[in-house]
Amino acid sequence: MRRCLDLARQALGQTAPNPLVGCVIVQDGEVVGEGFHPAAGQPHAEVFALRQAGKRARGGTLYVNLEPCNHHGRTPPCSEAVIAAGVAKVVVGMVDPDPRVSGGGIARLRSAGINVLVGVEEAVCQQLNEAFVHRVVHHRLFGILKYAMTLDGKIAATSGHSAWVTSPTARAEVHQLRVACDAIIVGGNTVRRDNPLLTSRQETTPLRVVMSRSLDLPSEAQLWDTTIAPTLVFTETGTQPEVQAQLIQRGVEVHEVPSLTPAAVMTHLYDRGCLSALWECGGTLAAAAIADGSVQKILAFIAPKLIGGTSAPSPVSDLGLTRMSDALELTQMAWRSIGPDLLVEGYLRQANRE
Asked: Which residue of the set 30, 34, 46, 220 is catalytic?
């Protein structure tokens, strides 16, 4: 099953709106077939593994981190392919939450006389596809807020200078995190102040998204180079048509909404088929995204530094909370060292009240 997960990760950031799935087929203790789902519309992991195994799949054991589908979508049902191949046993990491599948694939395999074991490495399987599960269950995009701060809670000095809060090791971790997401979202202030590139420094780079009500954006910015990665700018209806035209001429996609909010952006990205969005914004936009339910997970990189400054910006601005008893709590907490820095992650309890 762990090998299935490793195979599935090879398609990070490429399968939306589909999940990450890997498959391994074993015969007499030997791996005879492997595969993973590379992208929506492509064959599923089971099909690739069965093709590689050929006749050696008969009587073997098939491992897959997500329940095989049992319905006709863009591709035929995997359950029928598994049955036709003569597989004797199927080991499933987790049940598919999609109501078109949920339990149906497992039931179909069992009705064909196949021994099915469910729940192996289930927690890891759930975590790998948490964005897919959230999309299916809540019909919303999965939002992750990532920020880097000093030990005294500052994301920049009083001058606004913020390069670099954390170590190169932590920044490399962020690049890997970007690979796994479908979009990275920043506000206009971040573009003006930092001129970010927002790429993963790898072959797979997510959609770069800018939110700006005023479109008071620099005419030259790294984000306008769409030969590197696509860029989408959100603004409000009728804002600076000439600036919109200039951006479109540069290859930037511009989308107008009546009221520019994090929720409106997330709804649009959901409709585009995205699974997850990474918020790499300043404190004001971060607070707005948290307040309207656009953030489910927090990743805080903490550097062993002190910068001070009563006016130095913090990662989350005003949430309108005035009592400590009103503070938003995180659950499922985890932390680990990344070089000299610490990564703390958890899930917003408020975001899970649906």
From this structure: 46
Q: Report the Cα 15 to chain-centroid distance in Å.
A: 11
pLDDT digits (tens, 9 = 90+) for 9-56: 999 999 999 999 999 999 999 999 999 999 999 999 999 999 999 999
Longest CA–CA span in the chain (Å) reads: 69
State the pairing for strand pair 231-236/207-211: parallel
CB 136 within 8 A of CB 98: yes
What are the backbone dihedrals phi and psi of residue 300, each rounded to the nearest 5 degrees, phi first?
Answer: -110, 115
Secondary structure of residue 166 in the 3-state scheme: coil
Active site residue 236: no
pTM, to two decimals: 0.92
Neighbours of 337 (CB within 10 A): 10
Q: What is the DSSP string of 182-241?
A: SEEEEEHHHHHHH------SSS--PEEEEE-SS----SS-GGG-TTTS-EEEEEETTS-H
User: Strands 89-94, 115-118: parallel, antiparallel or unpaired by DSSP?
Assistant: parallel
Burial class (CB in 10 A: 0-12, 13-18, 19+), 181: buried
The residue with tokens 């999309």 is 135
Q: Report d(CA 53, CA 305) in Å as an integer.
A: 54
225: tokens are 């180079």
- Compute the CA torsion angle 134, 136, 138, 142 (nearest 10 deg): 30
Using a CB cutoff of 8 Å and minimum separation of 24, what contacts does 227-232 make?
227/251, 228/197, 228/199, 229/198, 229/199, 229/205, 231/207, 232/183, 232/207, 232/208
